[in-house]
Amino acid sequence: MFGTGTTTATTCYFKAHQQRRDLSFLGTLRAVFQQPTPPKAPKRIPKETRVLGRVRVDEYEWMTNKDDPDLRDYIHAENTYAHEYFASETAAIHLLNREMKQVLRTRRVSAPLTTTVRGYEYYTKTSRHGMVYCRRRKASSMAKEEILLDSAYLPENCNIKKVLLSTGHHIFSFLTLEEGEELGSLHFRDLNRGEPFDEVLEDVFNFVWGNDNKTVYYTKSTDVLRPYQVWAHQIGTGQEQDVLVFQEDDDSIFVDVGSTKDQKFVTINGNSLSSSEVRILDACHDFSKGTLPKMTVIAPREEGVEYYVDHHDDHYYILTNANPKKNFRVMRAHRNNPNRDSWVELMEAKDGEKIEDVDIFKNFMVIYAKRDALPVVSCYHFETGAVHEVPLPEQFCTIGAGVNLEYETDSFQFTLNSPYAHEATYEYDMASRVMTALRVHPIHRLDRSKYTCTRINVDAEDGKVKIPVTLLHRKNMQLNGRNPTLMRSYGAYGVPTDIDFRVEHFPLLERGWIIALAHVRGGSELGTLWYHQGKLLQKRNTFTDFVNVAEHLVEAGYTNPRRLTASGVSAGGLLMGAVCNMRPDLFRAMIMSVPFLDPMTTMLDPEIPLTKVEYLEWGNPADSKQMYDYMASYAPYDTIPDSNGQGIQSTKGKNMESEEEGKVGEKALTVFPEPPLTSRRPALMISCGERDQRVDYTQSTKFVARLRSRLAAWYGPEGKEACVLMIDENRGHFGNGTQDDRVKNWARE
């Protein structure tokens, strides 16, 4: 039996590898002899925009009119081309699809993870229709399961954004969103009667419960998707009777609503990308008396100072960057005197560190942080002030807080996401310092001993910093310059490039690829300063950091430009687009998903959703020539070189004679040299969604149309490289469809 099984396994292994070689060979033949012809945009209508003496010409501005029939024809043509392009690789896509589904396999029988609150165990299960939310009484092992919500009964293309229980645990509330939307419908279910309430709150962005079992606080947004109002709703009344509690009129500020862990206060958080202001109100306020709740401002807004508030006993605990180095600290202030002058420091992040979040329990506070781009979890004991670090099961990973609803406990759950295993859940007892693995799923048929994670540091172009890079690869990797490599990064908003599980990595790793996670400036892996050095007038650091990492991977013998690829999403797509124009010779292929490719158009139009909020991240090019020229020098759409001999000044912004000054305007700032037209360029795959409310899909259609026109020798009908654009009519910014849909798209990538 053993001999037969071994022979079968060996034969299957050999056939699979032979099939991969055959697919590669046949795919190459098809690419040569059956390559479909890329489409061409039906028209070019140059439109001039004059700002601060600069003239910007956009010949595809007409695409922003979504009702133009030529746009619909062009979208259809690009989607048809993409379909034909991938049709020749159906067998390869099927093989990769099957491999990734094998990776996703886990044990069918697995006890659900439970969270115990007020005598009930709450947990979720997964069905083929989505999540099922359940609870049962903890007192008896034979307690009947109670289904709170089953996704199978939701309308098609409807997703669950958030679920919450009232403080008395007899009303179950859940917020649903239609695909691509960011405002949803808030529903309520009476658990005592086992049926839903008639009332539904519409256009809800976020919500929390008050502490009286009948009041819900929720936020509503402006037409440009900025949450700006907090409303109070009483269960059993119509939405038209709801009370406006707070409104923020500053266009740069997002309003969010939350509650303290002890449920004594509701918090109204007014956050911009560089400052905060938090209001506290009594969670037990009685609206039936016809009065508004009294609100206390913890500290008035101060530019550059961010802070977040929780409550424990008689003190507020404040996470803030209020110090000259902008490193985050944990502070404490008495409830009767919360002014900034009375804050007392409990813990401070050192250089290269960032405290990201805190979670408060009766006896302990849990602090989640990053140190040198790696996670750190610490526990602070309220009574003694002692701090100890939690020994994590993995070094290279991403840590997330679990669903820790219980306040009076010494144990907390956290999730651990690592490159070579499914997401695991652990429970840690802060008093006894004992860790328990609640759920650990190894990858199906993966010999983890063959793979490893390593860290290298690369000198940045400015010589001021070293860029950390996490490498995922086989242990027997050789520095022969021949390893195919995928670089990933994001580099904006202080969002880190996490070291986590991605099913799409495994077909590559098993074929000897290196996955290089570049922790460039603009993220916050090395602290707040790391983020600030990659925004506004220092944004070019993000791009040069990525290029420096790519150059090092080539020079150190990891790979070569014909085997180096890169991928980015959203603002990471802007990174890909900028680098593609800056150093096209360094990469063989690039993938851009819902990419932010036209920041100039977006940031020059304050009526586009979120533009005013984004000024603090990217800058306002209408405010100064310096900011206009700087942004125009890296904006992917504006820096596409023109092989027809016109250069890129016609779109970056020509300087015109200033009528006010009576002289020629100052020369546009040049950050990146114009890439040579004779250089190699990467193949491109760009995907976007028509229901994306954050990055308009016409940014991608305009970008590709201009690529095909200006770089026809590469991306036109007779072009040397593939440029595939996929526009999904049902996709929002955060993806859509089933797991099968996502896996199939990863196979295409």
TrEMBL record:
Belongs to the peptidase S9A family. It comes from Linnemannia exigua. GO terms for molecular function: serine-type endopeptidase activity. It comes from the Eukaryota. Pfam families: Peptidase_S9, Peptidase_S9_N. One of its GO terms (biological process) is proteolysis. This is Prolyl endopeptidase. Gene3D superfamilies: alpha/beta hydrolase, Prolyl oligopeptidase, N-terminal domain. InterPro entries: AB_hydrolase_fold, Pept_S9A_N, Peptidase_S9_cat, Peptidase_S9A, Serine_Peptidase_S9A. Keywords: Hydrolase, Protease, Serine protease. Residues 501-743 form the Peptidase S9 prolyl oligopeptidase catalytic domain. Its EC number is 3.4.21.-. It is an enzyme of class 3 (hydrolase). The keyword Hydrolase applies. Serine peptidase whose precise substrate specificity remains unclear. Does not cleave peptides after a arginine or lysine residue. Regulates trans-Golgi network morphology and sorting by regulating the membrane binding of the AP-1 complex. May play a role in the regulation of synaptic vesicle exocytosis. Residues 48-434 form the Peptidase S9A N-terminal domain. Signal peptide: none annotated.
